[in-house]
Amino acid sequence: MANTGIQQVLFGEIPPDYDRKKELQAFDDTKAGVRGLEEAGVTKIPRIFITPPDGIDNRVNSDVEKAFKIPVIDLEGINIGDGFSTRKNVIDQVRQAAETGGFFQVVNHGIPIDMLDGMLDRVRRFSAEPKEERSKFYTRDLTKKVMYNCNFDLFQVPFAYWRDTLSCIIAPVSLNLEELPMVFRDVMMEYSKNIMNLGIELAGLLSEALGLDQNHLKDIGCLEGLAVLFNYYPACPQPELTMGVSKHADSDFFTILLQDQIGGLQVLHQGQWTDVPPVHGGLVINVGDLLQASLISNDRFKSAEHRVLANHVGPRMSVAAFFTTSANHSSTRIYGPIKELLSEENPPRYRETSVKEYMIHFSKKGLDGTSALTKFRL
Question: Ranges for the Fe2OG dioxygenase domain (predicted)?
Answer without folding.
Answer: 224-326
